[in-house]
Design goal:
With about 230 residues, this protein is α+β, with helices and mostly antiparallel strands. It has five helices and twelve strands.
Length: about 230
């Protein structure tokens, strides 16, 4: 009798574990499906990025790109990042020499651009077939699942770029007027003299996010949203 109860208990535990794992994978799987739709919505904006060893998605106005690596072992700088024009930030007061000490961890100036990103690791990516833009994103979900999240308030999936910076996209573009959003942490820019309300082409706003305990809180962000439809 005890053996029967033990077996039943183990089966129940395995079932709960499977359900739990399935729930944990919902965000990862959903992010892949929705990212695929974004790529197909603007195929002309997706291109190889040889310098950074990956792929790039360029915003409709050409001022900012999301870049993701094909192989973390070969990325020269960051594995995921956004690259944007520095001029609007310089015009709003940015003094690069006043950036905080930790600025170099997530930001780099290069040829009139600012790169905000992070290294994900040193893994050698392995593909079943071609390293397409979607397959390269799937490597993030597979190898660095903790960097992929869901922003409930905006109904967005997103990739953390480190330092409070993100690239987000709509879970459902048909139900969202912000199909892709480039997100920056304003703190290091403010510390370096930037008036975040004066950055041309960007929006300084309060955004609701979940804190470490899952409670909604408002934080300041610098945003550049686009409707792709």
């Amino acid at each position: 009798m005890n053996i029967v109860f033990i077996k039943a208990g183990l089966l129940a535990l395995f079932a709960l574990t499977a359900v739990s794992c399935g729930k944990l994978d919902v965000v990862g799987a959903g992010s892949v499906a929705s990212f695929d739709k974004v790529l197909k919505q603007i195929p002309q904006a997706v291109a190889p990025d040889e310098m950074n060893g990956g792929w790039s998605l360029t915003a409709p106005d050409g001022s900012v790109r999301f870049i993701w690596s094909k192989n973390y072992a070969e990325s020269p700088l960051y594995d995921v990042m956004i690259e944007f024009d520095a001029d609007p930030f310089l015009a709003a007061g940015l003094d690069p020499n006043r950036m905080p000490d930790n600025f170099a961890q997530n930001f780099t100036f290069y040829d009139g651009k600012i790169m905000a990103g992070t290294k994900l690791g040193q893994e050698q990516a392995r593909y079943q077939g071609e390293a397409t833009p979607l397959a390269a994103y799937e490597q993030i979900v597979k190898l660095k699942r903790g960097n992929v999240g869901y922003h409930m308030a905006m109904d967005h999936y997103g990739v953390s770029l480190g330092g409070g910076n993100l690239f987000e996209w709509a879970k459902d573009m048909d139900a969202n007027d912000k199909d892709i959003v480039f997100v920056l942490n304003p703190e290091p820019f403010i510390a370096a003299g930037v008036d975040p309300t004066r950055i041309e082409g960007w929006v300084f706003a309060k955004v609701t996010v979940d804190d470490a305990n899952g409670k909604p809180v408002e934080v300041d962000k610098i945003l550049k949203p686009f409707n792709l439809k």
